[in-house]
Design brief:
five-stranded antiparallel beta sheet; D-amino Acid Aminotransferase, Chain A, domain 1; alpha+beta; globular; six-stranded antiparallel beta sheet; Endospore coat-associated protein YheC; 3 domains; 375 residues; YheC/D; 9 helices; Rossmann fold
Length: 375
């Protein structure tokens, strides 16, 4: 039996299979190497008192085994808040078990996040102009100002429901996007009047944000961006684990791997657009520096965090733009580009940070005990 226990909080897909089980299996394998037993469960698996029916991976039998145990002392929250009911359930779990050690705290939705990040003078230059959707007329005004915009659900993930609208000429516009199932919407060229009719039919709500578009189209017409992963290490310090490029499929407005995108090394993708090696190194350095600034700022705002996935765009001039912050990032992009050591590090770092947090908690408890006056 492992000496330390890490609880992984997850969500069921269709009431049967837990989300991200393949990642949790890899997490369990890495945990086994350093003496951490990974125990996966959902809030619905919690029974009365301190009992939980969790899953542990048996590496000998090569399958998940469900066992009834006490609640693990430290929790790695991997729940994606795709529905309001999930958010309420997870919030209730955190409130009931507030004395547990959580590796991270929930962040805000896209609109609230933009407002919070805009407070920082050092972060503001990296943010595309963003407004909350109010009316189709105001959306078109924003489009005419920036010539290219994206409309995104404020709580959306994986490219679902995103629209890209570009002004091609004085009265010619191009609408592209993906629906809620991530299916690519056929490109639609229209006059301003036709575009407004189409947008009214799509019934966008105040749950959408409208964001200035960054020019990220490659020579072959496909879009691209970068996923940078910054994590806490085994010393409790922020460290950039890695960064990889993502290229969307043809006719797609997003580069997400789940939406059919492909992965490529950061250097290769930057070299595709910039010929100067010094320019490429300067961009890499700025991306890493910005990631540290952002992580420290968000931790001051929200409390302890374990990792952040930053979706970053680089415009044709080399300017770095933050498209999105993901507090529950995937790390498969590093596996896809063959950076196995980076991928392994991306998996093991939350485990190492959990160990560090447990050690810190033990030290603090001992110090409090030593400070108590003897009776």
């Amino acid at each position: 039996m492992s000496s330390q226990r890490l609880g992984v909080l997850a969500i069921y897909l269709g009431n049967s299979r837990l989300e991200e089980l393949s990642y949790f299996q890899r997490l369990s394998k890495e945990g086994n190497k350093i003496g951490v037993q990974v125990e996966v469960f959902s809030p619905v698996d919690v029974e009365s008192g301190n009992t939980v029916r969790s899953l542990t991976y048996d590496h000998g039998l090569r399958k998940w085994i469900r066992r009834r145990t006490t609640m693990p002392p430290v929790i790695y929250d991997r729940c994606r808040y795709k529905a309001a009911a999930n958010y309420r359930m997870l919030k209730a779990f955190r409130n009931r078990h507030s004395k547990l050690i959580f590796l991270s705290r929930p962040l805000a939705n896209k609109w609230a996040m933009h407002q919070i990040l805009s407070e920082s003078e050092s972060i503001r230059p990296y943010l595309p102009a963003t407004v909350r959707f109010s009316t189709v007329q105001n959306l078109v005004k924003t489009l005419k100002r920036h010539k290219l915009i994206y409309a995104k659900p404020k709580n959306g993930t994986g490219g679902r429901g995103i629209l890209r609208i570009e002004q091609l000429d004085s009265d010619l516009y191009l609408l592209q996007g993906r629906n809620e199932q991530r299916t690519i919407i056929a490109p639609y060229k229209a006059t301003e009047k036709q575009l407004m009719v189409k947008l009214h039919a799509l019934k966008l709500s105040s749950d959408y944000v409208v964001q200035q578009g960054i020019r990220v189209t490659l020579k072959d017409g496909r879009v691209h961006d970068y996923r940078l992963l910054i994590q806490k290490n085994g010393r409790g310090e922020w460290e950039v684990t890695g960064c990889a490029g993502r290229i969307g499929p043809h006719r797609s407005i997003t580069s997400n791997l789940h939406g059919g995108g492909s992965a490529v090394s950061q250097t290769k993708l930057l070299s595709n657009r910039f010929s100067s090696s010094s320019k490429i190194e300067a961009i890499k350095k700025e991306m890493n520096s910005f990631a540290h600034t952002l992580a420290e700022f968000l931790e001051n705002k929200f409390g302890k965090l374990v990792e952040l996935g930053l979706d970053i765009a680089i415009d044709p001039s080399g300017h770095v733009w933050l498209l999105e912050v993901n507090p529950k990032p995937s790390r498969e992009v590093f596996h896809k580009i063959g950076e196995s050591s980076t991928y392994q590090k991306a998996v093991s770092r939350p485990l190492e940070y959990a160990m560090w947090m447990l050690n810190q908690s033990s030290k603090n408890a001992e110090e409090r005990k030593a400070e108590r006056p003897e009776s």
